Q: What sequence folds into this?
């Protein structure tokens, strides 16, 4: 089980939890956009007070790295408007919303900052590592946000594709945040902790759709590198979700066409660095 409370975030449970509807896990990025006060303290006071009804999961201060969490990952948070009958806060197995304490054009230490991308982004690595552990894919289904404008994805994209969205891309919403964001996927993936690696079991082995601890170990690495197509698991039984997750990994490595069909090969396996669990 992943951690439902992010390691390194201070925990301020608001209660008022709500269940998720299931489906591909995603994250939604926001900025607080407050012309009158740019401090973490002020926004934290709002979301734990009068603004609790619109609170996100995480409040993140990109200049200091301060992070507060208001809901566990498996609860909906409250920062999105509905799209008709679709309760967007509940879409996916997880829909982690992150409010960045940022206002376009704010001045910090005598310097003016136009976008979140320009800030030091302190603590972003911890957030991305946690989002990957929840199975949130390294992808922007609607493209990375490029400006403070609406760029709404279709409802079917929103419902069927996991990964990262800007608030400006969520159907049924009117806000234009977060504006240009840093490259989230440049955050390095920690090495597999065990020094010994699982040798490639062979292409034919996977075609037999095996049930093995090796499949679980592979799936955990796929989640760690942001290539999850899992809704549950990963587990020991090879399934279509394993194949689709592995295909994401192959595409991340630059393979295309039949070379990215999701059936493991020796080179992509070696690059995945699966820790040793057992002999085949
Ligand atoms: Zn927003």
A:
């Amino acid at each position: 089980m992943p951690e439902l409370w992010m390691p390194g975030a201070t925990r301020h449970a608001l209660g008022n939890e709500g269940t998720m509807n299931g489906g591909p896990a995603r994250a939604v990025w926001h900025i607080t956009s407050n012309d009158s006060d740019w401090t973490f303290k002020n926004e934290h006071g709002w979301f734990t007070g009068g603004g609790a009804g619109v609170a996100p999961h995480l409040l993140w201060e990109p200049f200091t790295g301060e992070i507060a969490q208001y809901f566990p990952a498996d609860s909906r948070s409250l920062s999105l408007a509905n799209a008709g009958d679709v309760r967007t806060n509940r879409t996916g197995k997880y829909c982690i919303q992150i409010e960045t304490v940022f206002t376009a054009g704010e001045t910090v230490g005598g310097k003016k900052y136009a976008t979140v991308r320009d800030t030091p982004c302190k603590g972003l690595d911890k957030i991305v590592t946690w989002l990957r552990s929840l199975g949130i894919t390294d992808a922007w289904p609607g493209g990375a946000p490029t400006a403070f404008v609406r760029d709404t994805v279709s409802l079917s994209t929103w419902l069927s594709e996991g990964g990262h969205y800007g608030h400006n891309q969520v159907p049924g919403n009117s806000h234009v945040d977060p504006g240009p964001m840093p490259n989230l996927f440049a955050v390095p993936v920690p090495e597999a902790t065990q020094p010994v690696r699982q040798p490639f079991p062979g292409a034919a082995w996977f075609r037999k759709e095996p049930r093995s601890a090796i499949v679980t170990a592979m799936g955990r690495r796929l989640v760690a590198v942001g290539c999850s197509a899992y809704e549950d698991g990963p587990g020991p039984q090879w399934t279509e979700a394993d194949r689709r997750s592995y295909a994401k990994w192959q595409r991340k490595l630059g393979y295309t066409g039949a070379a990215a069909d999701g059936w493991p090969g020796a080179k992509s396996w070696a690059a995945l660095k699966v820790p040793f669990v057992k002999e085949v």
